[in-house]
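Risk register update: the risk of archive-format incompatibility is retired. Evidence:
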Amino acid sequence: MRILVLGVGNILFGDEGIGVHLCNYLKVNYAFDTTHELDFIDGGTLAQSLIPLITSYDDVLILDCVSVDGAKVGEVYRFPFSKVPNIITWAGSAHEVEMLQTLRMIEVMGDLPPVEIIGIVPYVIGEDTSFELSSGVIDGAKIMEDQVLSYLELRGVKAQKIKDISLQIVADHSFRGIDDL
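Archived output:
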């Protein structure tokens, strides 16, 4: 089985990049033991350009921001794409095309693998360039991390924490690359 963990968002706008930052955080801080092919990929703001990538996997987990009326910064929502709650909208103001629309296009083509989304309500989106994450998103990202590990464990992937590099440090390095962390 081919499993994709796809981080989505614009790293130039603080919390808006949390999907990418968390994806990178997991890559840097964990070793994964599995018989499956497992990839952690920074999808940035590519949306439609990700269609060939997404369709090449058997199982996809997307990490991103979501908008939820009345929700608090840092609240985490996990749901399958096939059952997006009515209260959820993607918050991707800086995305090329909304990820939700991209997934719907793939679904219409009949090529959509099972997709699960773990989204967090952001504070900072698309106003000033910043790599700073809000305290609410940093706290909520711990829940997201646990949810990702749970998702992978259900698919037979064992995770072992090998480093303890903070999410903010990873975010500060996301634009340069995380290979030196």
